[in-house]
Each structure stands twice: as structure tokens, then as C-alpha cells.
Amino acid sequence: MAVRHVLLGLLVALVWGVNFVAIDFGLTDTPPLVLVALRFIFVAVPLVFFVPRPELPWRTIVGIGLFMSAGQFGLLFTAMQLGLPAGLAAVVLQCQMVFTLIIGAVVLRERPTRMQSIGGGLAVVGLAIVALGRVDGGGGSVAIVPMLICVAAGLSWGVGNVISRSAAGANGLSIVVWSALVVPLPMLGLSMLLDGPAVVGDAIATIGWPTIASVAYTAGLASLVGYTIWTTLLGRYPASVVAPFALLVPPVGLGAGWLLLGEVPNEFELAGSAVLVVGVAIGQLRRRRGTRPDATSPPSAEVHQDRNRGIARRRG
């Protein structure tokens, strides 16, 4: 792998890891579902007027948008707004690998390999240790609620991964842009229902610079720039060479939360995070041996890397 491409892979891991801090920043003055809607408005517009619609059935585009974007990020942003630290969110979201394995086995009859099963089991153990750390951290059982919501975000991502299998061969950027159209209206509608029209209207009318900076980063850098670099690398090298860079996202997310937000994980949270990441890494060993890549372990916690799974069969 050329040095410049190694550096680009590291850059993507950095951008996607810091993305969780950017999300946290935007949540300081904007309700979570409104922030999701704003993010995907700017992912879709104005590119939707210039990027052709992918040659896929509308049900596939809508399914990817609802589960991989709206469901995943609506739940993720809500979990963080309720108190899940940004760094820990970057790790917990990787539970999508377990859900993708299970859903793929049930729906697509894809039998997990031995290493994938071991990796999935370790990831579950890691989640349990993190949950213990959340309770031990002083918040009691209530502290687990945001984590469970983030786990639900991983479930939504997993469903999206399986749906994306039918998108193999389609243009990646077009899927990103057109599926983003599905997100804003449902998110705004849910926010009006849960937060109230007055709160939503006030949030939109008084958008501050934290929200602007957050949307610019998450939509511009994390989604469009990061995704473009990622798909470029996948076009030049095997998925088994590129995917390991995404394993750096959770550690970068933890480090960014620690350095930029002062989030200091306790011993259980750190140990559980390490076990979970190791589990995800083990789940990818099959591809490192050169067998056909699959959608069971998207390499990252960011929105569009998981779609590369459905496109280039390499999170997200």
C-alpha cells in the first residue's frame, strides 16, 4: 500500500473517530433528532441535483436510509444526548457486527464462520463489561439506558447492512446522497412528537455556531469527504487491506472524548471497550485470509462506511 494511501486511511479513521465529539458538540444547543435531520439535509442537498439516482429499487434506497441513517443516527444521537459519553458511543456502536451476523444468518441463511462467532461472542462480553462499568460509575441502572439505546442503534445499523447486500455494484456516492433524502422528514416529525413543535421551531430559528460546526463536520467531513476517500481506497486495494483502518475508529473516539471533552472512562469501561474491539477485529479475520468479503462486520461506527459493505463488500 502506497504511503500516501496509508496516510489517507489513517486520516479517515481520525475523521470518523472525532466525529463523535462533533456530534456531542452539536447536541449542546439542538435536539438530537433535529440535528440528525440537519446533517442529512446537507448530505443530500445540493448533490442530489447532480448525482444520478442509483440503479436500485426504491425499497432498497428507502430501507438503507431508514435503518442505516435515520434509525442508527437517531438512536445514537439520542443516546449521547441522554448522557452516553462520545468516546464510549464510538465503541458501543460496534455491536452492529453481532446483529449483522445474527440477521444475516436468519434472513440470508449465511452461516457465520468460527472466527466470526468467536468475535461476536467476545463483543457481547465486552458490552456486558461496559454495562457493568456504567453501573459502577455511580449512575446505577439508569446509566445503562443510554447505552441500551446505542445498542439499538447498532441493531438498526445491522439491519441496514443486510439490506445493503442488494446494493452491491451500485454507485456508492449516489446511494449516500439519495438515501439521505429519506431521513429529514421522519426525524423532524418524531422530534415534533417527542420534543414539541415549539422546541423544534425554536431550535431551527436559533441555530447557533455549535450546531453549524457540528453539521459541517458530520455532513461534510465525516460523510462526504471520509466516504469518498474510503471508497477510493476500496477501489485500489482489497477490502481486507483497507478494513483494518476502521478498527482504529473506536480507540480514536475514546481518545478524542478523553482529550477534547474530558471524558475519562473507568476501568470496567476501558476493559469492556478493549474486549469489544478485539471481538470485532477477530470477526474480520476471515477476510484477511483472502476469502470472499461479506456484510457481517462493517468496519466502522460512522454513517457511510457501512454502506461500502453493501457496495464493495468490505464500519460506519
Could you give a quick summary of the protein structure above?
The protein has 16 helices and no strands. The protein is mostly helical and 316 residues long.
List the helices and strands and how they pair.
Blueprint lengths: L2 H24 L5 H13 L13 H24 L4 H7 L3 H12 L6 H26 L4 H21 L7 H9 L3 H11 L2 H9 L3 H28 L2 H4 L6 H13 L5 H17 L1 H4 L16 H8 L4
Helix pairs in contact: 1-4, 1-11, 1-13, 2-3, 2-8, 2-9, 2-11, 3-7, 3-8, 4-13, 5-7, 6-14, 7-16, 9-10
List descriptors:
single chain; 316 residues; mainly alpha; 16 helices; globular; disordered C terminus
Written account of the structure:
With 316 residues, the chain is mainly alpha-helical. It has one domain (3-312). Helices cover 73% and strands 0% of the residues. The chain contains 16 helices and no strands. Helix 1 runs antiparallel to helix 11.
Which outline best applies? globular
Biggest sheet statistics: none
- The arrangement of helices and strands along the chain is HHHHHHHHHHHHHHHH
Estimate what percentage of residues fall within beta strands.
Answer: under 5%
Low-confidence stretches are 287-316
Count of beta strands = 0
Structural class: mainly alpha
Distance between the termini: 22 Å
Helix segment tally: 16
pLDDT averaged over residues = 84
Q: Roughly how much helix do the residues carry, as a percent range? A: over 70%
Total domains, how many? 1
